[in-house]
Structure formats: C-alpha cells, structure tokens
Amino acid sequence: MLQLNPLAAMVLAAVSGLWLLSRRRWKSRAQGNPLPPGPPSKLLIGNILHVSPKQPWFKLYEYKKQYGDLVFFYGLGNNVLVLNTMEAVSDLLDKRGNIYSHRPEFTVVGELMALGQSMPLLPYGNEWRAHRKLAHVALSPGAVKQYHELQEDLAALLNKAILNKPEEFFSHYIAQVQLSILAHETMDMIGKATVPGAYLADLIPICKLLKHLPSWFPFHKEARLGRAMIDEFVTKPYEHVKHDLSVGEAKPSLTQRLLSSEKVEGLDNYEHRVKWTAGASAMYGAGGETTYSTVLLYIMLMAMHPEIQSADRLPVIADRSQMPYLPAVTKETMRWHLILPLNDVYFKGTTVLPNVWAIALESDGKYDPESFIPKRFLDSSIQPIDPNLYAFGFGRRICPGQYLAQNSLFVIMANLASAFDIFPPAEGKIEPSFGPNLVSYPEPFKCIIKPRSASKATLVESRAGQCNV
Ligand code: HEM
C-alpha cells in the first residue's frame, strides 16, 4: 500500500479540498446562481488572489468602481463578500447583526498565540457577550466621564512635551500613554499577524492542519514567542493595577474601574475576564495605536494645511459643542485616511468585509473626495456621511471604546490647535505614506511645531504644572 508522509498527505488533502470547493463555486456561477460580481476567476484558485494581503483597500476601491456595490471573491477555501455602500453595510451588519457578528478564525495569532480569548477575536457567543458587558461598564457614554480629567491632563502633558522638544513629536504620545517597549513590540507583532492572509494557515482553511506539525517547525517557535509576549502584555498592567488598588493608589483606568465597581451580575470567572477585556481594549485602542495614529495623522494634515489652524485658549472636553470647526477637522481627518481600514465579520463560511475605505471616498457631490477639506462637514448644502458612523465599525461588533476615543481625539487636537502652529518642514514637502499593519498609521514625517505666542507657551507650562498624573 502507498505510504505518504504526514506533510505530503496534508498537501494532497489540501489540493483535493480546494479543487472540490473551487469547482462548486465555478459551477454555481456557470449555472447563473446570483453571486455578486467580481474579478475573473480561475479553476482551483478562483479570484481570491485579486485581493492583495498588502493594503488591500486600495485595490478594493478600484473594484468598487468596476463591479459596483457588492463584490465577491472566492478560492483557496475562502469566500469574501465586500460591501461598498453604507446602505449595504447597514442592511447586513446593523439590521441583521444577530447573524453577521462572528469573526474569522485566526489559527496562528488567535489559537496558537492565544489572542483568541480577547474580545476582538472572540466568536459571537456567551464569552464575547461577557466581555462586552464589562467593556460597557467601563466605556459607556456615562462611564467615560470619569476619565475626562485624566484625558485633559494627558493632553496638557503632551502639549508640554511638544513645547520642550517639538522635533520629537512622533514619540511623545507613546511616552505619554506609557506604552513600554514591550507593549510597542507586542502591538507591532499583533498588527502584522492580524492582517487577513498574514499566515498561510489563516488564508487557506485546510492549512489550519499545519498547527498539528511537530513543535520544532519554525512557525510554532514564532507562535510560542508571540504567545509569551501577549501573555505578558495582558498580565503585567493588570497585576500593576491590582497592586495599586491594594495600597489605595490606583489611578482611573479600565481595570481600576472594573475591579473597584460591583461585580457585574451573572459573570463568573470575573478576574480572568476583566484582565482580558481591559487587555483587549488596551490592545485595540486604549493602548494608544488607534488614537495615537489619528493624532499623528492630524499633525501631518495640519502641517500640510497650515492655513486652517486657529484658537485662543486651552480647551476642555465640555467646550466641544461651542467649537464647530474642530469637530469638522476631526471628522475630515478620520475620513481622509481610515486608520482601521479593514474590519471583517464572518457568516456561514463567508467573510463579510465592509469596505469603509470606499465609503469614506464616496462623493458628497461638491468637494473632491480625495482632498482634505474640513468645511465639507459644515456646508449645509450637502450631507456627507459622518465618519463616526463608519470609522468605529458596525452592528454588534462596533467599537466599545468609541466614546473614550472621541473625547481623547477632541481634547488632544483642541489643545494642540490652541497652543501651536504646525508648518511643513523647512526643506522638501510631506509625502503622506502609511504602514501596512491592521492599524494603518503614518510613516515618520518631519514638520515644524511652534507655540502660537509667548503667552501660549506660558499657559502650556502652567497647565501642565497642575496635572495629577
Ligand atoms: C480613534 C480611535 C479608534 C478607532 C478608529 C477604533 C475603531 C474600531 C473599529 C473599526 C472596530 C471594529 C473592528 C472590527 O469589527 O474588526 C473596533 C473594535 C474595538 N475597539 Fe476600537 N477604535 C478606536 C479606539 C478604541 C479605544 C480607545 C478602545 C478601548 C478603550 C477600543 C477598543 C476596541 C475593542 C475592544 C474592539 C473589539 C470589539 C468587538 O470585537 O466586539 N477602541 N474599534
């Protein structure tokens, strides 16, 4: 009898499986079944390879122009449905959120590195619900008020750091939110590993079997390292807050809020869940990546458009309703470059991808969609879609940190706008470019940041002196 070694058997099983799956789709199209259109396909590999794993949003935007509101990709055991309009996204992900709220499985980062226990990767179900309940306690619109003072202090300290060393603006914010080297490296590793298709085992379902290969295979080594980094990243800050609570010195934070408030009713395994909810939030947003990259993007856009900056005192979060121009600048910053351009859900074998990039670039009928023009959000003759409706995701998976993030963005941007003028670099000009990770933040760039006046500089110094952090 023919003896196959395990690897050859897996490869054979993979190829046969793919061939069968691909034939089914191929036949379905040939029989006129109503699959949405997509780029031309080939037997065995379908058309999935038209979705590049590197910054796929650019190509997907082109496909929208070519194939319309819904575009379908398949092959190598994957089905991907791309939704290109707000209507399509809202029909599926908001109105039918009960079925479109699963996540695709990530074998390497989710299972082998154990990140699958964090909220963003948890499947839709009881464990995920428990994490969302906890997140709601700490991050609901009412709960985030308790962080106002802290956020205002952090914005004031950022202003001071920039005043003292304006040329180091790129790293101040990281220092500000106390992202240690470990956190930064872990975030970078997670950011790379969670881009769809980063590992073969995630791109080709049958390759999930690769996880059964002996532990000396190189990708197992990489996974073990990743697992240890993630574990330390989640456990260390948690233990730190627990210690501070025990000696009565804990500062406001998600973990502090959840450990010091009444336990949420009906939740067992409380500490483990708190640790992972706070850890996941740290990883996904509060850790800084999302807010940090939006702030960097804002500085970059201000340097490219110095004509639109002005303000005359250091603002607080309560000022938001009296400052209509700044929210317009914030919205336009979020629209002009989405820092989380991919967020997908999973339903019965199909990954559903709201193409937020294409939605952001949808024409408002008046202003060029690719240009940075904040006044589009103040012009009553048009109704551009508010980026807050798509930048934070959709349906039941919508970002639980959005209220905290909106406050952070407002207070940081308002403080920067009030204290500094931001100009392009003395030599050359800024050519915007962005990293390839899940959070797509600006690549380092140079600009000139100067205090508006000597009195502004004094105000920045004295406000920073009153901080409690
Ligand atoms: C500008 C800042 C932010 C942006 C643009 C943003 C955007 C998003 C988006 C688009 C999603 C949905 C992702 C998906 O469906 O795959 C998401 C999910 C999430 N965000 Fe945020 N976020 C921001 C800040 C924050 C903050 C400050 C926190 C926590 C304090 C946070 C915690 C989370 C968590 C835990 C999830 C996963 C939710 C789930 O899967 O149920 N985010 N965010």
TrEMBL record:
A GO MF term: oxidoreductase activity, acting on paired donors, with incorporation or reduction of molecular oxygen
UniProt keyword annotation of Iron present: yes
Organism: Mycena pura
SUPFAM superfamilies associated with the record: Cytochrome P450 (SSF48264)
Binding sites annotated in the UniProt record for heme: 399
InterPro entries, per the entry: Cyt_P450 (IPR001128), Cyt_P450_CS (IPR017972), Cyt_P450_E_grp-I (IPR002401), Cyt_P450_sf (IPR036396), Cytochrome_P450_fung (IPR050364)
Protein name: Cytochrome P450
Keyword set, alphabetical order: Heme, Iron, Metal-binding, Monooxygenase, Oxidoreductase
UniProt key word Iron: yes
UniProt pathway: Secondary metabolite biosynthesis
Cofactor(s) in the UniProt record: heme
Gene3D superfamilies: Cytochrome P450
PROSITE patterns cross-referenced by the UniProt entry: CYTOCHROME_P450
Family affiliation: Belongs to the cytochrome P450 family.
